[in-house]
Amino acid sequence: MRLALTTLLVLWFLILPSLGFSQDLECPNLPNVEVSSEDKENIVEICLAANQAIVFLSRYNLSLQRKIHFDIVEEKISNHGYDAYGSYDSRNDHIQLMSYAAILKGEKHPQMYGEPFDRIHYRGAIAHEVAHAVVQHNLKFKPISPGPQEYLAHSTQLAALPTLRREAIIKAMDIGPWESGDAISDIYMAIEPGKFAVKSYQHLIGMSDPTAFVETLLNAKWFYVYVP
Question: In percent, how much of the chain has pLDDT > 70?
């Protein structure tokens, strides 16, 4: 399926008009994902990464239930007072995302998970924001606390990376999954975002039946969740 979508996106890329202004375009085979950008390459990357995130989260019975819209911007994004590459607004299902060029221009040596930021990590950042939208669409209570939400977003971001890159990051972080009794919190994420991501991804894919734990995350009302 991924190969088929990639082929479709390449063909779509070739027939798109030369964009000199932003216009709203729906991703092929993803009617719930809409992109506004002047850059055709950005549009194709967003569609591909969004599909990866949606397919990954569908394993856990999570789905995109409303249309989400990507706005590509050239300036830094403020997300709860911090500079970020992307931000999802649950009030209108809009995702603001810095263009790849803006990220490289805005920082001397941008990094992600301890690696130089590149196109691969850009797709991971896109998948991260899509995951936030999917999580919000499937919440049992609102608002969800940051820790459980970021557990799923970072897991999705790592899942969107090529296997060798993901394995290299896991090896470099040199840390295992969350264990019974651990508290998944946004405080740890703020201090060690790369390790938080690796612990979450390994924990999620390592469970034989993760459905119950995902339900626990969606029901979270506090700033942390204890691992059973």
Answer: 88
Sign of CA dihedral 196, 200, 201, 206: positive
For the stretch 133-157, pLDDT in tens is: 999 999 877 767 788 899 999 999 9
CA distance 194 to 106: 21
Task: Write the DSSP assignment of 87-125 as a string of letters.
Answer: EEETTTTEEEEE-HHHHHHH-SS-EETTEE--HHHHHHH
Nearest to 165 by CA among 128, 123, 129, 132: 123
Longest dimension (CA), the chain: 54
Residue type, 5: L
Residue range 191-216, pLDDT digits in tens:
999 999 999 999 999 999 999 999 99
Quote the tokens at residue 67. 């249309």
The per-residue DSSP string of 6-30 comes to HHHHHHHHHHSPPPSS-EEEEETTE
- Beta strand 94-98 with 68-73 is parallel
**80, pLDDT greater than 70:** no
Quick one: average pLDDT of 222-228? 85
Distance CA 126, CA 149 (A): 15
The β-bridge partners of 36 are 24, 71
Helix, strand, or coil (residue 36) = strand
Q: Which residues contact 15 (CB under 8 A, 6 or more apart)?
A: none
